[in-house]
What does this fold into?
Amino acid sequence: MSEDIVIIGSGFAARQLVKHLRQQDKTRPIRVIAADSCDEYNKPELSHVVSMRCAADDLTRQTAADWAESQNIMLHPCTSVSEIGTVAHRVKSSAGDFAYAKLVLATGARPIIPTLPGSDLIYTLNSQQEYRQCAAGLMNAARVLIIGAGLIGTELAMDLNRAGKQVTISDRSAGLFAALLPPEISGRLQQRLTHSGVQMMFQTEVTELARQADSVEATFSDGEKKRFDAVVCAIGLRPDSGLAKSAGIEVRQGIVVDHTLATSVPDIYALGDCAEIDGKLMPYLQPATLAAIYDGILSRRGGLWISHHDIAAAEHPAEPRSLTFRHGERYDTLTFSLTPDEAEAGYNGYVHAGLWPVFHQRPDLARFSARTHRAYQKMNQAYTRAVSEYAMPDDDIWIQDYHLIPSVGLLRDAGLTNRIGFFLHQPFPDGQSFQSIPDWQWLASSLLCSDLIGFQTVQDMNNFLLWSASVYRVERLSATQFRVHDRIVTTGVFPSGIDHADLQRLRASDSFNLMQQQCRPGCRGDAASGRYEPNGENVCGAAGPGQSRRTDTVSLCRGR
It folds into this structure.
């Protein structure tokens, strides 16, 4: 049987996989087959190409040939795969038939295009290849219609507006970011865009597009007709799972995989935008990157990954939370459900409508209530119970992001004396903004129960250090370490974002080791240089600032 690992797709997930495979084995045959050019580019830059007047080739960071040579892989760009022979372990492609020992589907996701007359006139901007096909049309267009008022549609509208074009946004929702942000926040951005000349058409849909001479006439659901030079659709993505489905692999929303990324067919795996884990799609870079980091750390040392995975019906207060434990070859996982109130009032209420504006320096937009506070507290109590039940005395406990700030204090209240590292993947605001939170003392006292507090940037760390010294009796031990409430707290900068070039180096960098070592006592360092020396020198490799989304996790590291 062939020893080849065959990967279908060449996007971010596929490239990360190739890199990690090569770290483990320099010689095993790896074959990559993809429908695109296989050149590397930074996908978020597609939201800014028009105002920067970039050609498609300007986005290329590494050519396909250079990638193939640097990673010692067999590469087949611009190649379509028509069939997977699951019994014979072979894939049929336009470049020939290839045998595989392991097959990985990294086919990504395709833009959703509404079914309507004239849909062939719609542009999409989900890849360098798609931009190459429509770049001239967008550059020359004076009037552009964008279908979709979500994150990508809004970013494109801003870019096209900066480029001097007359932009119209159409969406069936009531406003910008309707599914992501409360109207108090999105309304300000909407007002700013309107003031800059962007026209908004909400609670309406495009029903037909037709070519009229050199323009495109759009008909809307209210009967209005308007003419544009270009139409761009940004209403979302759908996992590209057709190949898997035709091969008999289980597909629901995406290609169904377990926590090892294995599909329902032996020796076939899926990852990235096409994969569905625990009934959910995870189409974001940063959670995938964090998962890759902690997957590697836990694989090295053994441990337990704790997270919620679903929303369950409200449970009786007297009944213990149900936990699902899975034993894995490299590390274990522990999951549980949130109640609807914890998800709605705790996440969407206290965290997103309350903490998010404050941490981003907009306390005037924050909304807090007694109900959302109770739900937030119960959500953290659920995590605390899970950790308390499974933590060993010598485990390092790593907690991610502001969704779980109270968990640190709750774990101390439960009697755990383990080393705890808390990593904040949001900005830390100035002291005045932080103290606008009604429960700021409760949150601060919990945060100061950590042994290590990690921040995204040096500025965030300095904001925290200056503020804490102004509020508490703090004994400074070094530039990044202080004593408060009889506990020595170490701070550090551990950025984790969506900067593509740095992400490629992240897991191979010394910051990977540093995140393990910083949970140990006796750390000293220089925050300004980003250099830390825990039991020997390590240099933190920056990964660039960025937002996290639903990255709340707790992990227990073992096997030291």
